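Re: that chain you flagged

S.,

Sorry for the slow reply, it's been a week of failed gels. I finally had a moment to sit down with the sequence you sent. For the record, here it is as I used it:
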Amino acid sequence: MTYTQIGIAVVIASIVTDVLILRTRLVTRRGFWVSYAIVLFFQLLTNGVLTWLQVFRYSDTMIVGSQPDQGPPPFIGNGRIAFQPFEDLLMGFSLCLLATSLWIFWGRRGVQRTPMSGPPIWRRSGSGAAARAAGADPGGSGHGQSAA
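Prediction finished late last night. Pasting the structure tokens below so you have them in one place:
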């Protein structure tokens, strides 16, 4: 499978997951597209620089277009946008859509709805109420000690 085929398959799978499986329907919301535009700008910037510096190199047989033998790839053209193969945009879109869809899906189910502060539950002593009554600070910051 080529990088192009994988990119198209992942985009289709993430849209199907968003619309039909998780039913968050982010692709129908304006807010998603506005936030994705911001992500896209920084993706083009960072991936473009890393591809131009040849930190990332792509096999000619796996992407649309070809990579020159020497020197950086073209800024635009030859299957590239801001030096990077356009397939990278497919992968970035899928990553953003799936991560945001899962965030909303699990949030609707009440997973970690209210944040917890203080030490983890398994590190708290069994006499938490007695320690608080005595003025001990369960967070360890020293602010809970009484002046008596």
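What I noticed first: The mean pLDDT is 78.

Talk soon,
D.
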